[in-house]
Amino acid sequence: TVLLEPGDEVPADGRLIKAIGLQIDESSLTGEPMVHKTTDPAFNDMEATYAADHILRSSMVMDGSGMMVVNAIGDKTEIGTVAKRSTEETKVVTPLNSQLTRLAKLISKIASTLAIAIFLIFSIHDFYNFSLTNPEWNSEDVIYMTNVILNYFMMSVTLIAMAVPEGLPMAVTLSLALNMRRMLKSNNLVRKLHACETMGAVTVICTDKTGTLTQNRMEVAEMDMATDDEEMFYRSLALNTTAYIDDNNDKKGIGNPTEIALLLWLNSKGKDYRKIRSEAEIIDQMPFSTERKFMATIAAIGDERWLIMKGAPEIVMKHCEGMSDEETDYVKKQLCGFQAQAMRTLAFAAKRLSKPQEESTENNNRYKKTPEINCSEVIKLGGMTWQGIAAISDPLREDVAEAVERCKEAGVTVKIVTGDTAGTAIEIARQIGIWEKETPEECHITGTDFAALSDEEALERVKVLRVMSRARPSDKQRLVELLQQLNEVVAVTGDGTNDAPALNHAQIGLSLGS
Q1: In 323-471, where does DSSP find H-type helix?
Q2: How far is Cα 237 from Cα 258, in angstroms, rounded to an integer?
Q3: 130-134, 138-142, 179-183, 203-207, range with greatest mean pLDDT
Q4: Does residue 468 contact residue 447 with C-beta atoms inside 8 Å?
Q5: Which terminus of the chain has a smaller tally of CB atoms within 10 A, N or C?
Q6: CA distance 387 to 88
Q7: What is the DSSP letter of 191?
Q8: Residues 6+ positions from 483 with CB-CB distance below 8 Å
Q9: In angstroms, rounded to a whole number, what is the distance separating the alpha carbons of residues 114 and 92?
């Protein structure tokens, strides 16, 4: 067994047997920076990239704790398989190689045909003439006749040798090298020369989402504050969290990406979360867990104690009171709108607690406080006040939509292959213009369903496929190989380890990043 704690890098693949608010960074294999892990079968999503109780080597423990039983090590792990497929030799033939091969065969056929024809014509011509004018031709002078035939044979061989374009390989190499230098000036580092020409022949681009189409940076897209006490709302964001902003970079943070996004939003409002934290004292804290779907904190702010909660809106609403039917309907309508745009939603609530009572002791006249109550006890009482909703998203890169439109104009098909959820993947596809209202459902498939298809079924499906969600590294590689069977020239764009097998097996691998 292996104990899992925050900051640990998982050393092997295993099955989770115990978990308390366990959050894992699986970006090396799925591209997703935060995944909740649990042993509860009720939370095991059948469409998830990996099972909720499956822990993978090279992933990082971000929060919570757990215990797992090892079931694979070394090359037998998922990351080991990815590494093997990323480095294995491929038999992919690029368009340039195909064209040069066809040219070489054509030249060989023409030269061989001409050489044979010339040899036969000259030989028959001389045989006919010499038989009439040269009596030695019909004599028994074998050496003379052999010498004549040999001269014509050498002439034919020379013709074949002269037909070979010796300068062609050098010309092609120099041309590609010049293209490589030109591309380097625009920050494109070419690893293999043939890629310079192959990029111009691409017919399909399979692109990752996180970090490729999007900025891989969570930010608050919309914040609907439903309370008049703005200062308390700001305190809720600053105190009910375990994240921090990096002291060396005020645009990056340490901790849960969603919580970092909330702190960055606070900064944009001119609020210093460090100052808010210094003015309060955390009495008790209940970390977020997949089972509870919320986080709670009891904090002493001045002479008052507050219970602060954030989490899934449907869970937080159950603990709130005083919301009218109109307010409830308004919140539900908002949630539907945010979810339709593939945004993550968080709800906030707070409750002022009674002051701790003091009681005298029999031995002296001093007073002592009653034992502090914990979050779980207070939450059961309900009576919280609804504070608002935050919609959080990973925004698109600014130039992505324009780039996709230019690809479509050039006749290049773009397909999204991501480890994210179906709703998020389809929404991103809609935003970049490859998914319309009338697009049929068969244009989308999950990695699990794709893996279950036979090769014949999958070959037919990829012809119409536009979006693949919850994709594993092996699913991305299989998609590339099936497209190549359809005589497509495939380019793969990605920025993570999970994209490596597909990058290796495609005709063109476009690795984004530093």
Answers
A1: 325-340, 375-379, 400-409, 422-432, 447-452, 455-461
A2: 11
A3: 203-207
A4: yes
A5: C
A6: 54
A7: S
A8: 204, 206, 462, 490
A9: 34
* pLDDT tens per residue across span 127-163: 776 666 555 555 555 677 678 788 888 888 888 888 8
What digits encode the pLDDT tens for the residues 418-456? 888 888 889 899 999 999 989 999 999 998 899 999 999
Q: For residues 5 and 19, give the distance between their C-alpha atoms in angstroms, rounded to a whole number.
A: 10
Nearest to 481 by CA among 500, 462, 499, 453: 462
Question: Are 6 and 63 contacting, i.e. CB atoms less than 8 angstroms apart?
Answer: yes
Residues in the chain, total: 514
The Cα–Cα gap between 400 and 406 comes to 10
Tokens of 507: 């005709």
Alpha-helix runs per DSSP H in 185-305:
194-198, 230-239, 257-268, 273-278
Residue 376, CA distances (Å) to 238, 285, 292, 367 in order: 21, 9, 11, 27
Cα-based torsion angle of the residue sequence 332, 336, 341, 343 in order, rounded to the nearest 10 degrees: 50
What is the DSSP-derived secondary structure letter of residue 354?
P
- Report yes or no: 54 and 13 within 8 Å, Cβ to Cβ: yes
Instruction: Tell me which H or E stretch contains 505.
Output: helix 500-505
DSSP states along 235-269: HHHHHS---EE-TT-TT-EES-HHHHHHHHHHHHT
The DSSP string of 380-392 is: TT--BEEEEEEEE
Q: How far apart are CA 393 and CA 420, in angstroms?
A: 13
SS3 for 93-140 is CCHHHHHHHHHHHHHHHHHHHHHHHHHHHHHHHHHHHHHHHCHHHHCC
Q: Characterize 61-73 residue by residue with b for buried, 16 or more Cβ atoms within 10 angstroms of its Cβ, and e for exposed.
A: bbbbbbbbebebe
For 195-227, b/e burial (b = at least 16 CB within 10 A) is bbbbbeebbbbbbbbbbbbbbbebbbbebeebe
The residues that are catalytic are 208
Exposed e or buried b per residue across 18-37, where buried means at least 16 C-beta atoms within 10 angstroms of its C-beta: ebebbbbbbbbbbbbbbbbb
Of 398, 307, 391, nearest to 354 (Cα)? 307
C-alpha span between 380 and 358 (Å, rounded)? 24
